[in-house]
């Protein structure tokens, strides 16, 4: 997505953020439309955020989740998608543990498809809400220096945010152990550091990623303790950040690992703003796809594929 | 009934000449010359008459996965692709690791339009723990052993298999060929495409080139130790090609194949997230593709193989990680090699026919020079015909071709299997 | 209203070509002044009044109305803006782009709301506005002031205060701007 595509959605988000502040935070814009959430991977937060967004627009929601599915009974993904679509859905929100699944789903259906996170690839609505949060705090991302810290390798959030932050004029620094960086990132618009302490005082924002226990069994890091010591935003580290710097995290946080309880509660932390803005951004995306009457797009931040077809094209 | 192939140009390992070929009703070539007459004519004008092709690497799925392919449908596809012999991979269900399954495959093969050459697993059930009954299998006529689908991980067992195979040369009448799928699974597990720039960008976990190269390196060392004839299947990386080149220069008994997809496609194709591009070893980079082409040109790589791997449509309608690896190859191999290898037609035919025939141990009947008395396993190819690939139109039960919709130049017009025209004008006759 | 109407009426876009000047700036000033007097008279002053301009065309008219009310009474009633794009009944049929802010200055419960728009046409915008206002509270009454009533109502809605009644054809376009009111058509 270009800077202007991103800004269009962020501008639209202002309208929906205002609705969220009304006494009755609901408009009839998508009355009679059905939004299906197809979550092949559990994510209570993202699902709640999309469902809240849909309901605030008066859309109906249908939920599919892997636990209640027949996928384990040998049904192909395509069969499942066709079944979900046949419940009269107008739009599919797809979450899957494997990269590219939302792309594939979009190949099989004429419905609009929103990628709610696909494996280690992208999480475009998360990037939009993060950009919105930063813009809300600072007015613009231009010239900001943002560090993304942690498991970049497995992070769809990092991939989307690197692209979105830089498209909006920010400088992105990656801070991670060498094992948690993608295998080949030459040409990415980032600089890489392995030590957080060298940077802290120069940052406008720190974006912490979730660190998971399984990275230890995979032999990527020795222990959560060592990770927390080297890369965690401790109370001490947050104290060394600039007074106007911001702390972001996509949630859910592992207190004491990537962020200390004090750092999460610091006034510079905008983690809860991110959650609130997530609903507004997703309202904007759903409305853009279903309600604007235009051929609009809720694409990956970086469209890939042979024809670079964005995955939420309203076709 | 005798048939005359009329108006074509012969190319075989003896060279090139413009003569007609008469095939007798005994399944052998009756005469080569001009002014021949037979019961029927097949038009070969504008075409090249070549010995039939031999695929060292075909997954025919029978027994066990008949939904994806059978020996009959696989062979029909082979015939359409100009093949007269297919080496059937042993990763069937049950595994082809004993004489009974070998005989079943062979029996089914006799009714098909190609000669089916069963290969057998090196280890019981391809589990990599116990050696398969190689002696019994050699006595049943098996000359190629492979655990294809995975490599044999345990270096100690691999060494033993190599050593044991050298003792079977006398029983087989030629050296046993051990065909290795080179992949160190400890490095590749959890990866679904080539690890590199594209996998990083796409977020699909990758397999490093080194997972193949480490096993190539190990097996060259073990060949040095044991002297066993080892054939490297589907080489896919530049370093693998370089190591095999070195091993050949050192005089080691190694051979190698490359697939048509590894010489025509790169990992960038995975950007569609369509698992039709998922294959093991994975599609690699431009550099690797160029190295494969160089290896074909300088003789490091002895043969083009297809690694024809049919999968039913629903199996590919899954997320990239869950879909099985593999793609169709038999019907597109000739055109792709001709169009994309950069080699001229005689070299292409050598890589598809007589060179693999020698590795498969069938040079007496496939890939042999087109001379009176030799078995009539022939194909007639039109190097200029342009056609469009369609998975649905293929003889295979599956349609997982990565070249769907692509326009290719070069097509098989007729195929004769033991004198019988099994493909005439691009259509299977039975 | 005219601004949005122009963008949304198929064929989209085009250029407004004026055929006649209906009101001059002075005419509009006089009309606002008269409407202001009517609002004050009808509501016995301004004590409970809230003026809400509809985005986008109604906003400048509402600002002039509030200024005039202040001039006359010496009290400035609270002024808000309302964007009704998301309450419209033609979402998904025609391009609807919420583009402007909704800012209501005060609790609407038991207040008298004067909705202000530039042009009253089918009445559908006002229907959407009534719907939206109900989400913000329960006003004692809602009144409607428009600069131009051009007819062709599709819903049972009537204005309380009108700058000018203007008979039009359906395919004509009324353009209200600072310097006056024009009647014309859209040309591609």
Write up what this structure looks like:
- The complex is a heterotrimer of chains A (315), B (430) and C (188).
- Chain A is α/β, with parallel strands linked by helices.
- Chain A has two domains: 3-119 and 275-290, Aspartate/ornithine carbamoyltransferase (Rossmann fold); 125-269, Aspartate/ornithine carbamoyltransferase (Rossmann fold).
- Chain A contains eleven helices and nine strands.
- Chain A has helices spanning 3-20, 44-56, 77-85, 101-108, 124-138, 156-167, 214-217, 224-231, 235-239, 261-265, 271-290; strands at residues 34-39, 60-65, 91-96, 112-118, 145-149, 171-175, 190-193, 205-208, 246-248.
- Chain A has a five-stranded parallel sheet with strand order 7-6-5-8-9, covered by helices on one side. A four-stranded parallel sheet of chain A has the order 2-1-3-4, with helices on both faces.
- In chain A, helix 2 crosses helix 11, helix 5 crosses helix 6 (156-167) and helix 5 (124-138) packs across helix 11 (271-290).
- Chain B has two domains: 3-48 and 374-428, Urease, subunit C, domain 1 (Roll), CATH 2.30.40.10; 52-360, TIM Barrel, CATH 3.20.20.
- Chain B has a seven-stranded mixed sheet, with helices on one face.
- In chain B, helix 4 crosses helix 8, helix 9 packs parallel to helix 10 and helix 13 (345-352) runs parallel beside helix 14.
- In chain C, strand 7 (173-177) and strand 8 form a beta hairpin.
- The model of chain C is unreliable at 1-11 (pLDDT under 50).
- Chain C has a single domain, classed as Rossmann fold (3-Layer(aba) Sandwich).
- Helix content of chain C is 28%, strand content 30%.
- Chain C has helices at 2-8, 25-43, 58-73, 124-134, and strands spanning 15-24, 49-54, 79-82, 112-120, 141-149, 161-165, 173-177, 180-187.
- Chains A and C meet through helix 1 of A and loops of C.
Number of helices of chain A: 11
The CATH topology annotation of the largest domain in chain A reads as Rossmann fold
**SSE succession of chain C:** HEHEHEEHEEEE
The level of helicity of chain C is 25-40%
Highest CATH level, the class of chain C: Alpha Beta
Question: What is the number of E strands of chain A?
Answer: 9
By CATH reckoning, the class of the largest domain in chain A would read Alpha Beta
Uncertain ranges of chain C: 1-11
Strand content of chain C: 25-35%
Biggest interface, chains and residues, is: A-B, 32 and 25 residues
Q: Please describe the biggest sheet of chain C, giving its number of strands, its sense, and whether it closes into a barrel.
A: 5 strands, parallel
Query: Strand arrangement, largest sheet of chain A?
Result: 7-6-5-8-9
What's the main sheet of chain A like?
5 strands, parallel
Arithmetic mean pLDDT of chain C: 88
Strand content of chain A: 5-15%
